[in-house]
Amino acid sequence: MTLEYPRSIDENDELLIKMVLEITGKFGEDYWKKLEQEHLYPGDFVREFTKQGLFKIPIPEKYGGAGLGIRETSLILEEINASGGNSQPFHGQYYMTWLLSKFGNEKQKNALFPDLGNGKIRMQSMGLTEPDAGSNTTMIKTFATKSNDEYILNGQKIFTSRIEESDWILIVARTKKYGDVSKKTDGITLFLLGPEEKEQIEFTRIKTMFNSQTYQVFLRDVAVPAENIIGNENDGFSYLMHVLNPERILIASESIGDMRWFVEKSSEYASSRMVFNRPIGQNQGIQFPISDIYAKMLSVASLRWDAATMYDNNGDIKKIGELANSAKYLASEYAWQAANVAMDTFGGYGTAVDTGIERKFRESRLYKVAPIANNLVLSYIGHNVLNMPKSY
Predict the structure, then answer these.
(1) Mean pLDDT for the chain?
(2) Under CATH, domain 11-118 is a member of which superfamily?
């Protein structure tokens, strides 16, 4: 049973949450601990998730999906993390589904959506970040050269997640060199790579501080059919904005789920752990930090909800960006605070693998620096919302 909190949900939301909890109930914290120890992808969990139709949630009804929005997917990811799991295998396929819905052509949608929904194929990986570009997407060097009816891709990506578990992947490349465009965001194109193209790619796994299927990727003369471009050539940067806003909202939802898990674990332990013949939760030094995190969780959950609602209602993209980035920033900061509060509450037991605290402690730290560093979120707000001079 995970911690509940006041939120506006209807009967359909409750049914969706119940479905997710039935799945997470089959895969307890021992399951995630074992995956962590053996550095494994949660294949059984993903298969059960798929069997229950949860990958169909954002796929348009026309293609066999449920036609629902980021509001519902946010609920799903939050519940997975609040149950002690890790939602990373799911958020990538969700936000790329929206990308394909908005900018893919009919041939691409008809070819991919039915099989994405029923689990015959997976699309959980996007190659964007590069060793020398980092968060400065306009400076990527991966280049696609047109050759008859295909493009030849050359370059390198890093921190590309789940490529080994994905049948289709998205690669972001330049089709015009940075020095040849008048606007630095021009000349970027999005390419869908299927199983045949994936066979041409080299990738090696990067060992990280927690169980993450993350790779560095090498593209050497990878041939991609021209029909695999999403949208128009050279316009890919604007399309990415429609991926990154949902991504921020989904990441915020995962962090909110982590906060719920930490608060629940901390309050339960503080109520039962006896020191000096009294529960440690009776001490305000223990009680107040946990209560502080709970209050912060309520506030950022509401902000996340506003961002999701605005996105689902096709609101102004700049306003969505303001809410989505703010939600990601606050949720990841608060989740890291929650992780430290839990570690302080559990004391030495927090470092013990069996409690799960140290695992989630490490997992929660990621979202302060990925998929965008929080300092860059603050720069975004300063530049684009508060109209202050650019700092870079």
Answers:
(1) 96
(2) Acyl-CoA dehydrogenase/oxidase, N-terminal domain (1.10.540.10)
